[in-house]
Write a structure and sequence with these properties.
Blueprint: H1 14-61, H2 80-89, H3 91-94, H4 99-103, H5 109-124, H6 128-140, H7 144-154
């Protein structure tokens, strides 16, 4: 005979309730894993959207087309300084003028002087009313002498 008086099977029913508890814990763990995956995917999508917005804002502040954002690598921080540095490094690829390329103008000095004279001609030019008056005198001239006189006086 044994030293223990555990002959009833009812005393060992704890095993069934522990299995039920394990099932509940596994179910809860699966639910938590599912929620964690949803939160991770939500976080990643929000993080990606925030990064894209920050990069597009940095590009817009530099006056650059926002389509270039798709070419910026993922390891670049979305700060304006990092994006600006990346743009300066790859400006020649995208045909972007940076502060370095703007420092050396690509205009002939003679052309620049001629352009300046043309833009300043409005200040010293003849008004349209005066031109109309000269045109009227030219049209009303009856002889070569009158025509020469109108041309001489108008400065044409």
């Amino acid at each position: 005979m044994s030293n223990y008086d555990y002959e009833d099977d009812d005393d060992f029913t704890m095993e069934d309730s522990s299995n039920d508890l394990v099932k509940q814990l596994r179910k809860a763990a699966k639910q938590k894993d599912k929620e964690l995956q949803e939160l991770k995917s939500q976080f990643e999508s929000l993080n990606k959207a925030q990064r894209e917005r920050a990069i597009k804002d940095a590009l817009a502040s530099r006056g650059v087309n926002s389509k270039i954002a798709s070419f910026i690598p993922q390891d670049i921080d979305p700060t304006e300084e990092s994006v600006s540095k990346w743009l300066e490094d790859y400006a020649d690829v995208f045909g972007i003028e940076t502060s370095q390329t703007q420092a050396t103008p690509n205009v002939n000095p003679n052309d620049a002087a001629a352009y300046k004279r043309m833009t300043n001609s409005a200040d010293s030019g003849v008004s349209p009313e005066h031109n109309g008056d000269i045109m009227q005198k030219l049209m009303n001239a009856n002889s070569k002498e009158e025509l020469d006189e109108v041309i001489r006086l108008s400065g044409l």
